[in-house]
Give the backbone structure.
Amino acid sequence: MLGNNILYTHSLRVVDGWGIVVRAFLIGAVIAGVCSGSASAADTIIVEDWWNIDYAKSECNGKQEAALCKENAEQEVRNFVVETTTQMVASAECAGLSVVTYAGPQPSEVAKVATTKPYWSVSIDFNSGRHKQEWWMLHSVTLAYMKGEADPKELAKTVCAIVTARGATLLN
């Protein structure tokens, strides 16, 4: 592991002694250094899917077709989250960040590990049928709180800018 990037290598077949191993190591070190950006190991985003789905389902309470409404709401949330995380993965602004989706109620092993270090929690107050959704995020240590309204592409860009500190520094 170099910086905060995991360097995956394939087994090397030594052809000309240690020269090829040394060259492979140096190339890997250069690639890892170039790709590291300004993100640190603590730059993890946890998308609170469990909250997102429960929030969306709550608007179905009392409706005649509540079960179908809840099923549709869950699918809409999952689509919105997949679109958002896809934008994060594809965005250069998010380089070096880790994104974990917490499906709850029991955290996955990945989520357990992610919460052992500082992280940003992102929640969506999802309302069915709207292209833009209200969202909020909270830092696990500093309790910095941000919120807004965005479509998946805007949300990915905004969250990554906040996490990588590419915007203004909030002093209060």
About this structure: The CA atoms of residues 101 and 168 lie 27 Å apart.
